[in-house]
Amino acid sequence: MKFSVVKYFKGTQERGYILGSVDEIIQCLDDNTFNLQSISGSRFVGPFLQTVHKWEKTLSLIGEVIEMYDNIAALRFQDGDSGEKLVSAMISAEGEVMEFRKTVRAEGRVEDWMTAVLNEMRRTNRLITKEAIFRYCEDRSR
C-alpha cells in the first residue's frame, strides 16, 4: 500500500504535488490497530507482548504522521545561511499562519524533521497561548 501523490494545478499552472486521498490507508491502519488491541487483550499474548507493543507504537506513529500531513496545508520554507532549507511557519487549510519562534532545518529523514516541525509548532502554540492569557489577565486587572 502506498500514498498517492497527484499534481496540483492552480488554474492552468502546475504548482507542484499534493498528497492524494488517504482514506484507504487510514481504514487499513484502523483495522490493524483494532486487531492489535484484540491481540493485546488475549491471555495468550505473553510471549509476544514486546512485539505487539512495538507494532502498536509503529502504527501510532504512522497515524500521527498521516494526521500531521493531513492537517498542514503548507509549510513556509526559507533558505538558511549555508543554503539549507528552513521551515519558518505552518499554514493551515483555513489559511491561518503560525510563525515559528525558531526555524526548523528540513534535512535528513522527513519523519525526523516533520516531528521537529510538530514539536516547534506545539512549543510556539504554547508560548502564544501563555502570552494571550497573560495579556488577557493584564487587561482585565485595569
TrEMBL record:
It comes from the Eukaryota. Pfam families: DHC_N2 (PF08393). Residues 67-132 form the Dynein heavy chain linker domain. This is Dynein heavy chain 10, axonemal. One of its GO terms (biological process) is microtubule-based movement. One of its GO terms (molecular function) is dynein light intermediate chain binding. InterPro entries: DHC (IPR026983), Dynein_2_N (IPR042222), Dynein_heavy_linker (IPR013602). Transmembrane segments: none annotated. One of its GO terms (cellular component) is dynein complex. Gene3D superfamilies: Dynein heavy chain, N-terminal domain 2.
